[in-house]
Design a protein that fits this description.
It is a single chain. By secondary structure, the chain is α/β, with parallel strands linked by helices. The protein folds into two domains: 233 residues, NAD(P)-binding Rossmann-like Domain (Rossmann fold, 3-Layer(aba) Sandwich); 104 residues, Rhodanese-like domain (Oxidized Rhodanese, domain 1). It has an eight-stranded mixed sheet with strand order 3-2-1-4-5-6-7-8, sandwiched between helices. A five-stranded parallel sheet has the order 9-13-12-10-11. Strand 7 and strand 8 form a beta hairpin. Helix 4 runs parallel beside helix 10. The N and C termini lie far apart (58 Å).
Length: 384
């Protein structure tokens, strides 16, 4: 009998073959399946590793970023030797080393409304390994328009979520989140931190759901949202309802083509130096150092979380976490000169935009944040 599996594959997947719900037929389904993983970071690492190990025959990887040492605390597909390398290439080599019998496609690019359809065309299932809302909304629209399942996951500190969105059978992502949250209230892991194993927990759940979808077994998370709290060791499942007024999958949808969501989400899909601010809104560490030495420093506001101050402090700066800034705008003189400071410049860029909206005009953001200050001005300050 022809099983479409080689002798090597029979040995490699033998533990699957002994499970009645998988068996030869299930392993054949895995071999002929194709999955696109968008993001090869914290979530994408366990997703890709376990799908490759399971024998998913074709895996696509999308990411524009490069490996940094700060990634290695949670992005377990990469290694110290990968630092500086493109994430998709680093991940490809690791996956091929794990399972040389499968096909790995790489897309070293930012996924956007222009290229998304072409990238996803040859894949059955879309899996979310992203860390930003614009790409997540884009992926959801793509899934709705193409009729493909969208396996969702997200993490923040000790908490995570997972779901399977399939608009043919239930809610889509936008049914659940019609509007994105305020970026100031939901910082990225680079700004708010993430418990290292949390992406492993959620990513493994996403890989599980993907394999179940391929095999057609069990009860999937279609129409459900799984909430995980690692501190409480709790798992909670919430039923989701399809929104008949959803702008993408509702009775009378108003969105019919892929669009880019940076403006809608008030946050970028791609992290850019300076937080996307115009050059005239930035002050370099060198220029700020000159101002301080001249005895004419602007008002310095450090918008980092208080726990970060145990690592490093900026001399002469007042500490006001970004979420508390609105309480001070009515007290401060809107004409005074202010420089906002954070770790790398992303939160301070948001702080500047918040201040601008309140009528402040003489405001700047420290380019590169306190890490750039440490690298170029004061090496005694610890970078993190």
């Amino acid at each position: 009998m022809e099983y479409d599996l080689s002798r090597e594959e029979l040995l490699r997947y033998s533990r699957h073959l002994m499970i009645p719900e998988v068996g030869l037929e299930g392993q054949r389904k895995l071999k002929t399946a194709s999955v696109l993983i968008v993001g090869t970071g914290g979530l994408g690492s366990p997703i890709a590793l376990y799908l490759a190990a399971a024998g998913v025959g074709r895996i696509g990887l999308v990411d524009y970023d490069r490996v940094e040492s700060s990634n290695l605390q949670r992005q377990v597909i990469h290694s110290q030797d990968s630092v500086g390398e493109s994430k998709v290439e680093s991940a490809r080599k690791r996956l091929q080393g794990l399972n040389p019998l499968i096909q790995i496609d790489t897309f070293d690019a930012v996924m956007n409304s222009t290229n998304a359809r072409e990238i996803a065309e040859d894949y059955q299932i879309l899996v979310d390994g992203t860390d930003n809302f614009p790409t997540r909304y884009l992926l959801n629209d793509l899934a709705v328009f193409t009729g493909k399942p969208f396996v969702y996951g997200s993490v923040f500190r000790f908490e995570g979520q997972a779901a399977v969105f399939d608009s043919r059978k239930g809610a889509c992502y936008r049914c659940l989140f019609a509007e994105p949250p305020d970026p100031a209230l939901v910082p990225s892991c680079g700004e708010g931190g993430v418990f290292g194993v949390m992406p492993g927990i959620i990513g493994t759940i996403q890989a599980t759901e993907t394999i179940k979808l391929i095999l057609g077994i069990g009860e999937t998370l279609v129409g459900k949202l799984l909430l995980v709290d690692a501190l409480e060791s709790s798992f909670q499942k919430v039923a989701l309802q399809k929104d008949p007024d959803c702008m993408v999958c509702g009775v009378k949808p108003v969105i019919h083509n892929l669009i880019d969501y940076e403006e809608f989400c008030a946050s970028p899909a791609v992290t850019s130096p300076g937080g996307g601010l115009a050059p005239e809104k930035l002050i370099t560490p060198e220029k700020l150092s000159e101002r301080i030495k001249e005895g004419n420093p602007p008002k310095l506001i450090d918008v980092r979380n208080p726990v970060e101050l145990a690592i490093s402090t900026f001399p002469g700066a007042d500490s006001i976490p970004i979420e508390k800034l609105p309480h001070y705008f009515s007290v401060w003189n809107s004409d005074q000169e202010i420089v906002f400071i954070c770790r790398t410049g992303l939160r301070s860029a948001r702080a500047l935009k918040m201040a601008e909206a309140q009528g402040f005009t003489h405001i700047l953001c420290l380019q590169g944040g306190i890490n750039a200050w440490a690298a170029g001005i004061d090496p005694e300050i610890r970078q993190y």
